[in-house]
Amino acid sequence: MDLDTLSFILLGSIGAVAYLSLNNSKTPDVHPLILNGQADVSRIRNAGESAIYRCKYTPNGQPLFSCPDRSARTLYDIFQQGGLKNNAQANFLGTRANGGKGAYEWVAKRVNNFGSGLLNIAGLKTKSDEVVGIFAPNSAAAHHYSLVTVPLDQHDTVSTLTHVLNLTGMTVMVVSSRTLPAALAAASEASSRALRHVIVIGTDEDLRADDRRAAEIAGIELRSFEVVEKAGESAPVENVAPAGFLAIVPPNQKITASDRHLSYLSLAHVYERVTIGVLTYVGGSVAFYSGDVSKVLEDAQEAKPTIFTSVPKILHRVQDQIIKQYGDSFLYKKGYGNKQALLRQGRLVNDDMWDLLVFRDIRTKFFGGQVRVLVTSADLTNAKTTEFFRIVLGSQVIQGYGLVEASAAVTATLFNDYSSTGAVGAPLPCNEIKLIDLPELGYRAEDVPNPRGEILVRGHNVFKGYLGDEEATRKVIDADGWLRTGQVGEVLPNGTIRIVDRKENVASRLPQ
């Protein structure tokens, strides 16, 4: 008897489902003992303080991890060693407008040209305290000539920009056509009157007559990026190298040259700089979003990132959209329940029958279909968000905690840790953590069952201090180098940290 086409399809589907069911491992992705002891605990502790907690790979008594590669200690080194040396022809930077074209070699040439032009035109000196403001997406040229950069968010107000100009005394600012009016307005209001050069991304044709007049009134020389780049090409200056991004990544989850990151957070957001640095170090690629946050998911569909970083607010919005579109579906509900049960057994699955029937479609529509690692910051409002995206995306979801003063991160959850305790992981290998009593808020290191108190961090990722404000620096960094974060934490039995509260007097210092 002959089999018709429909019969072949049905038989094939049954076979695929049977294979996927048998193919999935029945054991947890990582041994429970690894998750039960994620931190090294000091034997000595001071009164009113907890023990000192460290990553178990850099235990107490040993030096903290400073850099993953001795030859790559700066952003300049990372670009030269990780990207240019090993992946010169691989795509590095791109947008939807240029189709993702921008190899490391091509970027290096333009970086050198623009950096040289910046030095020649603005008279900047390498390895000095002179500041270059970046009111635009990227700052690689400054890193190649040992210049100090100040990233500015595109949503900063004129008053904020004025404060930054007065505080830093910056003489050069690189802007986009969108941020140019705010930059010129701030320059006119600033008492420092130090800003003398504004570089606008684009060509001379993009500069409007009104902007030229406003710049002239403010005593500012206005030039296009194209002009500065051509000036550097005709009079090149040799690179001047400056005088970590540290987490434990298992071999099978290693970030490689084939990975791609979709960049939509401002470079004023420290974690975005860290992420781009990591992708540069491994020779990966970075796709910049179209400029409209509401269209980030459209950008993701085209860019197809494998690494996706986000703040909780964006993830909550995406979660609501997914539930609204798929939440009433029988297949979604059944599949979600089954994958949730597997996850709570320690098994992350992305290739079972439910992925075939429903979740693969979600991954493609919302994230481009290639995301394997999603990274987000501490979320005090909904500990179940990470579980939701592990189920729907079938990808690793890493949650971390940090703040600007500690280079974005001080803790991170382990790969393959799918617990739903709301913890933000153990200390990174580059820093150590302790808690101190906050009796006025009812938190003490002696609390039962777990110690609680203000989180203090010390390590290579802690900043040196606030620019021009020694008094503010002394308030947050003590004589022993411990940074007071203003966040209240609880250390769980397995050595991971859970954020439980915030001190009122540091409400303005938001975590990354």
UniProtKB/TrEMBL annotation:
GO cellular component: endoplasmic reticulum; membrane
Superkingdom per UniProt: Eukaryota
Keyword Nucleotide-binding among record annotations: yes
UniProt KW keywords: ATP-binding, Nucleotide-binding
Domain AMP-dependent synthetase/ligase: 250-467
Membrane spanning residue stretches: none
Recorded GO MF terms: ATP binding; long-chain fatty acid-CoA ligase activity
Keyword ATP-binding in annotation: yes
Xref: Pfam families: AMP-binding
Gene3D superfamilies: N-terminal domain of ligase-like
Protein name: AMP-dependent synthetase/ligase domain-containing protein
